[in-house]
Amino acid sequence: MGGDRAPEQIVAGARAVADAGRIGVLLVGLEGQMGDTGDLPLLHCTEVIGMDDDPGQGVRRKKDSSLVRAAEAVRDGNAMAMVSAGNTGATMASALLRMGRLPGVIRPAIATPIPDLKKDYPTVMLDAGANAEATVPMLLQFAQMGAAYSSKRYGVGRPRVALLSIGEEKSKGTPLVKEVHAVLAEGGHGDFDFVGNVEGRDFFEDEADVIVTDGFTGNVALKTLEGTLRFLMSTLTGILTQPEVADAADVLFPHLLPLAGKLDPETTGGAMLLGVDGVCVISHGSSTHVAMVNAITVAHDVAVDGLVDAIASSVQSDADTLAVAAD
Amino acid sequence: MGGDRAPEQIVAGARAVADAGRIGVLLVGLEGQMGDTGDLPLLHCTEVIGMDDDPGQGVRRKKDSSLVRAAEAVRDGNAMAMVSAGNTGATMASALLRMGRLPGVIRPAIATPIPDLKKDYPTVMLDAGANAEATVPMLLQFAQMGAAYSSKRYGVGRPRVALLSIGEEKSKGTPLVKEVHAVLAEGGHGDFDFVGNVEGRDFFEDEADVIVTDGFTGNVALKTLEGTLRFLMSTLTGILTQPEVADAADVLFPHLLPLAGKLDPETTGGAMLLGVDGVCVISHGSSTHVAMVNAITVAHDVAVDGLVDAIASSVQSDADTLAVAAD
Q: Which terminus of chain B has fewer CB atoms gathered within 10 Å of its CB, N or C?
């Protein structure tokens, strides 16, 4: 039921995945309001948490909503993963309240893939907005969970983890960032290498595999990056579709399309909520059937591949250090 | 002496401005190391604060450095404004320690112009990195100083001021952001209209004339925006310079160049340090003579136009409210 193009595009993506035969898809939504669902299994609910609903209230009050029922399906073993293009906060809250936190996890975080053309897999940035504020132990866990995710999802052997700051030097940033830098620089917090601070200009520079930051900064950075890409792409499209350059544009389009494809958020499979006891993919509100196919496929594959166990292990191995850092 | 292309490009820009006749330029630097300075007046110093020097230590220890001497020239009335493409922190520290803060200003802020093609003047974002941390009264003053700057520099009658956050709703963001939102929403803090929160994706959407944020978030956002533009522009240039598309590229270049020009940081005149008792322009480290011409011209024009008095008035009119907000 969620997303700007629901239910048509969501259902179309789900059907395309199911038709391919490898992955089964369970649709959760209002009876009779999901359009042509083909022969997909349906889980009917009576409520929907809308884009403008308060996430916490929505989950508490709308117990028979599609988001809550989807999270319960994962909790109860009736689904391996949930995918939503709806209200991000409510998706997060449903997953957190119904699946629960993994043991030792202070706060879940949203991990978002950012395409970096200088390598053949995306950089993972977290937290992209689950928590407006962070503490030292939270940011350490984000590093651990992000590294485990980069390994599981993209096969990176020993991910390079960086801290987002306003200068490369360890003396740069807020007191929080400086403290996290010091703790990460000690090493020994997991199967990753801390490569120091990166700046906002480094997202496309192959400086790191995982970029750690608080959810406020991460959300601003991600939306700035996406907004800048969208602005420039649409301005270019405007120029290339002027009649007087039509012939030249025809020659160039085949060369530009692969770039547009690589940078398109539709192709990345969506963001992942890390730290809850289940797989939860948060897709863009603007998701089409293409984005849905990718999101559902990724959700399935990381679930089969044991992502949740890997995330759980990544934080538990370091619980003592985190307790010290929290003091 | 400052910047990646100093002294050649810096001196070339200064000479070009002086040759045009309207603006006099005083060069500050090491004797015999500024290249061909033509007949420009020179102020010789014996030290330079380098890009890797600690800003505070640099200013305290290198009292005969070009940055410190330039700031003293403004303080002593021997120059109307200073311009540097050198160490940003040291430029800021020199201006702050030698010119001093304006009465009532809690902390100076770096105001950076961001081109928005949907209107014919840039959006001003502050703080772009002067202060890693901010308080409610500081952010209120950034709103006031930013509005005064937008008016003086771009002639905006009653600037639209927005707060950078992670959602449009007043409930979104850190406690600091929510508190600042509430205070700005009261109105009555100056000659501007508070238009609420904007997000990172709104920089190019004509949502505001002034975007207020803390220096950490602002610096990350600005560098993310600049890095994304640079990445995409250089990727496009790579595509357009392939031999097999040479003819099509020749047709398109004249259509693409104006866009590149409008987005080029070289054309904006650089960032401005607001809240010190003098005009201080902070240029990109990569500044060429073109950037220098723009920066020097802007520095001169806002000085003549009374920017410093306008900034001083903008914060003083609201001193009582700020004192309350600080409690």
A: C
